[in-house]
Structure formats: C-alpha cells, structure tokens
Amino acid sequence: MSTVIKASNLVQGYGKTIVLKQVNLEIKKGEILALIGPSGSGKTTLINSIMGMINPQKGEVTLLDTRMPNRKILSNIGFMAQTDALYWTMTARENLAFFGIMQGVPKKQLKKRISYAAAVVNLEPSLNKQVQYFSGGMKRRLSLAIALVADPQILILDEPTVGIDPELRQQIWKELHHLASEGKTILLTTHVMNDAWEADNLFLIRKGEAIAQGTPRTLIKKYEVQTIEEVFLKAGRLQDAHTSND
Ligand SMILES: Nc1ncnc2c1ncn2[C@@H]1O[C@H](COP(=O)(O)OP(=O)(O)OP(=O)(O)O)[C@@H](O)[C@H]1O
Ligand SMILES: [Mg+2]
C-alpha cells in the first residue's frame, strides 16, 4: 500500500519554543490513524504542520508525495480544525455549499453531496438554520460535514468526536470505516479511548515526542496491559525514565 501522509524528522515550534521533537509519522492509503496525547502534547501542532499551515522548523511533511506547504494538494483534503471556522450568519446549507464549491464540487453534484454530508452527522433537520443559533455540538457536526462534502481522498480531523453523543459517534465511525474501505486515508486526533479502538493504528504523543505507535492490539500486548490508557501511562513512564537518564 502506498504512503499518503508522511512526516520525517519533523521539528516544530513557535518562536524559540520547541513543540514537536523529531516526529516521524507515516499513514498509508486506506488507513485510519488516531493521534492520542494529553492537552498541550502537540497534536494540533502536528495536524497543522501536516496541513502546511505552519512551515517545519526542521524535517519535512509530504502529502501524496508532494512536499507541504502546497496549495494544490489542499483540494484533496477534507479538514476539520479544532476550532470551528464557520460563517455564523449563513445557514448550515449555505456553509456546506460555500466550502463545497471552494473544494471543487461540481454545481450539479452539490445538492447530493450536501445531503450526504448532512446525513452522516444527522444535521438534515437543521440545514436551513443559521449557524449562530447552533449549539457547540451542532457546530462540530457541521464542521465534520464540511470536511466530508467534497469527497476528498484524505481526511484530517482535529477532535471530530467532541460534543458528539455515543449513538451518533457510532454512526460516524461506521461511515469513516466505509470511507477507509474505499481507499480514503484518515488522520484524526481524539481524547476518547473508544475512538482509539476504532482506529487501525495509534500514534501516542507526549511532550512533543512519539512514545508509542502500532495497532491497538499490538500496543496492549507489547506493554502487557489491558487498556490503551495503561499503554499511554506505561509508555509515558518509560519516556520520563529515558529523559532523566539523558
Ligand atoms: N500559536 C501558538 N503560539 C505559541 N504556542 C503555541 C501555539 N499553539 C500551540 N502552542 C503551544 O504548543 C503546545 C502544543 O499545543 P497543541 O495545540 O499542539 O496541543 P494539543 O495536543 O493539540 O492540545 P489539546 O488536546 O488541548 O488540543 C502547547 O504548549 C501550546 O501552548
Ligand atoms: Mg489540539
């Protein structure tokens, strides 16, 4: 299988503060990878670096064998940022149409694509409502629908399941698995451990370093524990022991 997303020896930060230290990440076509780590560990920084929104301080990021930042590649990506970027005085339908057209959805297909994306996140009843009247969870759901509207090859989703109830979360996961089976590549971040079990591969990040990666089952076995949380704690302790030896 071919590599779709790759970060090599990525060092990233803000000014003099280093946030990501030599991160290496590879995601193959049709794979779902979940980025897991505590608040402030560098997940969004990594996502934004992969999107090309911030230039690497060192190392490089490639998407579909193209070095980022690259504007042309962006039309292949459905992106959901951690902070919703929506037009508040427009309806949900208008937001979906706007972003759909921006992403190159042909006019003829727009209606069908909007119906599909709204259905995945159960937003059909609210399509004609202005976003300013939406709850926080509804805005997250609309942001996810926007990421899906143009049928992109790559989905990059920063905390897509925040504010989403368990039933809808299951429905969304079903669709993400379906998309992956069609060859779509999916990178997401999450704090929800149930999400971790849905992913093909996990990438555990702590203090800007990858502390463990692999399938959920492999990691549980390797660290001889019962849960992903315990994998995280054990890998974290090893990281601290390693750092204090330096
Ligand atoms: N624009 C910025 N300027 C300066 N520092 C920043 C900026 N964005 C993030 N940081 C810092 O970089 C570190 C990593 O932040 P990041 O947002 O990548 O974490 P995260 O893992 O996504 O956290 P969360 O789970 O809370 O979303 C934090 O220490 C944060 O304070
Ligand atoms: Mg974040």
UniProtKB/TrEMBL annotation:
One family from Pfam that matches here is ABC_tran
Identify the keywords attached in UniProt to this record, alphabetized: ATP-binding, Nucleotide-binding
Name the InterPro entries for this protein.
Answer: AAA+_ATPase, ABC_transporter-like_ATP-bd, ABC_transporter-like_CS, P-loop_NTPase
Under SUPFAM superfamilies, the record lists: P-loop containing nucleoside triphosphate hydrolases (SSF52540)
The protein's GO terms of the molecular function aspect are: ATP binding; ATP hydrolysis activity
Report the residue ranges that make up the ABC transporter domain in this protein.
Answer: 5-232
Record-linked PANTHER family: ABC TRANSPORTER G FAMILY MEMBER 20 ISOFORM X1 (PTHR43038:SF3), ATP-BINDING CASSETTE, SUB-FAMILY H, MEMBER 1 (PTHR43038)
| Descriptive protein name | Nodulation ATP-binding protein I family protein
